[in-house]
């Protein structure tokens, strides 16, 4: 029998248990048809790259299936009808990899990341230290004040000439 991998994305409103129930439903129908589920991974609630049907997050599930092509088309039809499933993708593969998928192995690497030391100086922290009054906006204000003082002195001088 051919091998397939199917990734499901369910709405974030549903619980993990409901996503597992969808996978259980697929597995029971597949076993009745003579196939089997070789691999099953729940990837968790993850952010979507873009909004899908007003959802920003979704529950991801990977299924490795050994099934007939007729069953796969029927499974996809049922997934299209299920309102809790946002997207799915089924691909035919030559073999189903044993062990955790790349998504799960990357998650475990993130958890085991060692402490990398203190944070280096940032882009704006290098070079000379600037005080509070050295910021550009304060320098511009001082120049503006100086021009205003000059204008007021000039206006006073004009007033004396007119008298």
Characterize the structure shown:
The chain has 163 residues and is of the alpha+beta class. The protein has two domains: 3-97, 2-Layer Sandwich (Alpha-Beta Plaits); 132-162. It has four helices and four strands; from the N terminus they run βαββαβαα. A four-stranded antiparallel sheet has the order 2-3-1-4, covered by helices on one side. The chain starts with a strand and ends with a helix.
Q: Please write the string of helix (H) and strand (E) elements.
A: EHEEHEHH
Count of individual beta strands: 4
Query: Could you say what the CATH topology of the largest domain is called?
Result: Alpha-Beta Plaits
> Quick one: CATH superfamily of the largest domain?
Ribosomal protein S6/Translation elongation factor EF1B
Please list the strands of the largest sheet in the order they lie side by side: 2-3-1-4
Our count of domains comes out at 2
Strand content: 25-35%
Distance between the termini: 108 Å
CATH class of the largest domain: Alpha Beta
Mean pLDDT: 80
Q: Which stretches are low in confidence, meaning pLDDT under 50 for 5 or more residues running?
A: none
Largest sheet: 4 strands, antiparallel
Q: If helices are DSSP runs of H or I spanning 4 or more residues, what is the number of helices? A: 4
CATH architecture of the largest domain: 2-Layer Sandwich
